[in-house]
């Protein structure tokens, strides 16, 4: 589905003027889950951004034009000063989202979130306890996650339930969606499972084979894939990705990353201002300047607008930032078959 015109214009202008419109800050890498698909390689990594630096960082982001701020982890609520940071973010006018696994959302935390007028996104892997805890690798986590979700909904907090699709749970989306509808939460499913930040590809074994996803494309949970028409126009010379253009991720050690998973950072906000890193980092500038014509194989491919090529996947999984992504190629082949008129591939009710 295409974006509304005003949103599209905002995104175009943010990219044109290098405005970091959307920023994610990982307050901590510590987590009380050990989810099989998680891209964080080291949960013991120290959290090096002090409260004071985080508060001044928020002011720098506001000065740079950031509008949307996400506070995440690890598990966000393991960071003791999360509320201090979140309150300052709202004082500065950011649209605030909190990413959590839900298990630490007790009554006081839920009340604090109400006062913040923040939205919360929580991963819900299954409505089956055994499947959920197979993924989270923490006994008792299913009940605690549901309790946290329901505390928020009892207070009318905006909640989005996210279901990363894996071999363990991709046939269970209907039950998660039904639960979301029952409690008045949003629901979002995604088939994207990424390699870890350090290049470890073990998580990729959890990916659902593309042919198994065919019944889901065009269905109620994944929807249909609508390409951006101008990406097929060889004259199109805009950014191919939000990474380092209108979005970045800041780790709990202070590294400014082009996105959550694209490796490489040559600027740290513990040593430099955010503006200095954002504007002068050679790596961020390299990523933000990638255009169709820089892609040595994909630039002449008619499927570029449908494959969903990701810079991070191309680099981490296939070894070339400017090359094709094998995963994206598989996806493009599926979409091509789906639009070929082959009735055997037509999505069907499950």
Task: Describe the 3D structure.
This protein has 13 helices and eight strands. With 350 residues, it is α/β, with parallel strands linked by helices. Helix 2 (51-64) packs parallel to helix 3 (82-91).
List descriptors.
alpha/beta, 350 residues, 35% helix, 11% strand, globular, 13 helices, disordered C terminus
Report the total helices.
13
Determine the strand fraction and express it as a percent band.
5-15%
Q: Which structural class do the helices and strands define?
A: alpha/beta
| DSSP strand tally | 8
Average pLDDT: 89
Computed Rg:
20 Å
Order of helices and strands: HEHEHEHEHHEHEHEEHHHHH
Bin the helical content.
25-40%
Which sheet architecture does the biggest sheet show? Answer: 8 strands, mixed
What would you call the quaternary organization? single chain
Largest sheet, spatial ordering of strands: 6-5-4-3-2-1-7-8
Low-confidence stretches: 225-235, 346-350
End-to-end Cα distance, whole Å, is 22 Å
The best one-word shape is globular
Compile the SSE list and pairings.
Layout: H1 5-16, E1 22-26, H2 51-64, E2 68-72, H3 82-91, E3 95-100, H4 107-116, E4 119-123, H5 129-136, H6 141-154, E5 159-164, H7 173-183, E6 186-190, H8 210-213, E7 247-250, E8 256-257, H9 274-280, H10 282-288, H11 304-307, H12 311-318, H13 326-338
Helix pairs in contact: 2-3
Task: Provide a concise account of the structure shown.
This protein is of the alpha/beta class. The chain is 35% helix and 11% strand.
